[in-house]
User: Fold these one by one.
Assistant:
Number 1:
Amino acid sequence: MNRRRFLRASGTALATAALLGPTASRAWAAAHAAGLPDALGIQLYTVRDRLPGDMNGVLEMLSRFGYTEVETAGYHGRSPEVVAAVLQAHGLTAPAAHVGLDALRADLDAALTDAQTVGHRYVVVPWLAPDERTSRDGYLALADDLNAMGERARAAGVTLGYHNHDFEFDTFGTDRPAYADLVERLDPALVVLELDLYWAHVAGYDPVALFERYPGRFPLWHVKDGAGADMAQTVVGQGALDFEAIFAASETAGLRHAILEADAPSDSLAFARESLAYVESLRG
């Protein structure tokens, strides 16, 4: 950070502290020192076992735990209007939605209209089918496709994103992961990256190193953890990932939304509660 930027940031911090008062200003300072965003979210795929029968109850519980944001993965038989109303009733927003690539290709306009209705600012491609990831050319073609859709999304006031697993880091027998081909082919003005911290770690890549290589490209994170030789998914904070170091690099990443997730927790609400408590503890 250069001297001018440091002085400007310091002045902002002092002004904020004066407005908040001593107790709140200490909490604000701790949060920003840790690199955590003010709001924390959860990917609703985590609690998908409960949502079809009781969306209202589940969202109420997540709000009580302290979540203020969610990321959707389908609407579980509800209309976008109903989803928007239930979110609002519980003081929640849904800045991002996972929408399958096939659905976007089939009717991008419908997905963008739904996003506008619910209030999603990002529509994120969550997964890539095996037949589209057999070569580097497949990833380059995907990037071109995403760029084209991203331009249409931008015109609608929505930003397109891409969420990784571990397979994007296949090197195809070289020393360069295909993820690098994908990221460098994507237009950062049209498509952002949602880094799944867990899957990057499973693939053998340090999230912080990715942030440093592609600064500002990762406004969305999936905060997920795993432990043991097989990296079985755990409550966040009980596994192998160094979240203090990762969140300390949030400014480099360009982080705006930290979204907690587990793929198949044995008790989804317990995971949501305990994981949020851990991440909040990083504020100091």
Number 2:
Amino acid sequence: MRLLQGFAVAALLAIAIVAPQPASAQATLDTPGIAVTDNSASYIAFLVTAGASGAPYGFTVEWMPLADYNLTGWPVDGYPVPGFNYCTFDGQPTFRVTPGVFDFLLGANTGARIYLGELFDETGLYTTYLDELSPESQYVVRVRAEGGPGFNTSLNSGTLNASSGTHEVCRFTLGYWKNHPSVWPVLSLSLGNVVYNQAQLLLILGQPSLGNGLSILAHQLIAAKLNALLATPPAGIVSAIAAADAMIGNLICRPIPGWGSLSPSSVNSLSIQLDDFNNGKTSGDDCHPTAARATTWGRLKTLYR
């Protein structure tokens, strides 16, 4: 009898040894790296690179103005601090897409570009901040890989300092035009073959794209056309504006009743070309204000600052 009991105890010990460990015992994910790759007056672009264990559930980027960080540091135990924002990237982007990377669930040593300040029209994320960044401003940023059911979230990366860029005197982003309707040089614009008044255009600018390529393109086209009235754009941008109008054609832009759609991939190249123009990043764009618009762009510059 005692011999049988011994065998039973041994069997139980063996089962305990080979039994799978609970999910909470999963190894902590490697901390991703983050580096600045580009900037403009309205955004800072970063390359987030997963470690050897990847970021299979996506990653979270946190940021705040340097001045606020110097006063409070990063939040502790979720306690809110001034200026703090975050974005969890865990789905599929449709605007600023990294070639060869189809979603933010990163494999080992895989990198994805993200654009803080251009999240309004992006998808595959959840964020506390959809506005553009302030021009000529300093920020601190950090990143971590998100864990799954095993709560194996990585440690936060070290704190990275990053700055937004300067702006041109007569190139302004869609965020600027959306928030300063009183300085528009015209009160109506055509998008494709359809003419919209300013109230309709502001409605269009106020709606995130939600993955609708027509909205992505329309947002940049509105800003580009307004900018083109302040100073003559380079020939390449004139052609891009014409190509965007041709692509939109008779489609109505969201949220105007009867609105249509385009695939994000079909508008991606044109949208980014116009976005670069609106951010003052187009090569060869000297941005000399048109004489007839001198007063207008001067008012714009004063209000922008």
Number 3:
Amino acid sequence: MALFGCLALLVFGLGLVVAPRQAVEAPEPSFSEQARAAALSETLRLRDAGRALGQAAAGTPEPAAGTAADALQPGMDTTVRLLTTQAQALLAPDAGAGSGSGAAESSPAGTPSPGVPASPADTPGSAAALAAALAESGGQRLADAGAAEGGMARLLAAVGTAQLLASAALAGPAGAGTHLPAALTSPEPSGSCPQGSATSTPAPAPTSTPLPTAAQDAGGGQTATEQAALAAAVRAETATVYAYQVALTRLPGDAALTASGHLDRHEALLRAAESLSRGVCAPVPPREAGYALDPGFLSAPAAGLGGLETAMLPVYGDVIALSSGETRQWAIAALLETARRAGSWGADPGPLPGLTADPALFPSLPARH
């Protein structure tokens, strides 16, 4: 013991120190977090570009009514408000109001997505360039949604969808043409289940069923699963098909032609949702014989169809969040299609189509933005 004590004193006396443990490197952010940060950075960049274009237009002599500049200003203001709401939704969870910290602080406006060198040329300098940049950003958000985690996939799909629609709306007065991607189509996958699996239920007797409510469309109180989300999509599409069939008898001329095309797409979406349900060996909800339509729908079918399309958005948002692979890609395309149809009837899909969150509860952007 005396020997060990002497050795210990000798070690400390010579100033021998134990090498400190190597610092543990912070883990690399997940793909979902990287996609969120990139979406926030790009959204802030586009927001600032839109604000600068709007301020430049406001600083010029008042444009004459009916001119391109006169038509452009309201669309630019709408675009800036949309991008502001999206940026708030994309803030990191710990980025509190006015905190000056969090993702927004580390991704200042005007900074491009990671991996893209900053350059003044990157900032859209015209409405046409902003429309093109919105389309590019929206397409990237939808692509990232295909690989992100459930809830983040839904948010990215909502942001991308709204940015693509904003691009198309801005492109008109900007004289830039439509920027919606033609390659985004809805596949109709099929699947097979082991023999004896219950993938359908008998058709009901003729009846008049109320149109599904938003809560029923979102799963009707069932456990949140891919199967439940697909079942909700089947029920909602079945009701929407019926509503379109009724509306066709009451819509005039061009509106009837538009409704006929939309009806074809809804019938295709219904078949795809049923096929996807069978692919995951889930019971397929039966097609109801009929639905009780509100008198307001019968007197104003165009507005009623717009409301139905808007109500479909959270249904596809659920499918995106709860699925993966081919099913998610189908739901992302369906979300974009549905938002476009809602707009064709004059309904507003909002800045985050497919989400039911209240923008009033989003955190405020840091003051520097």
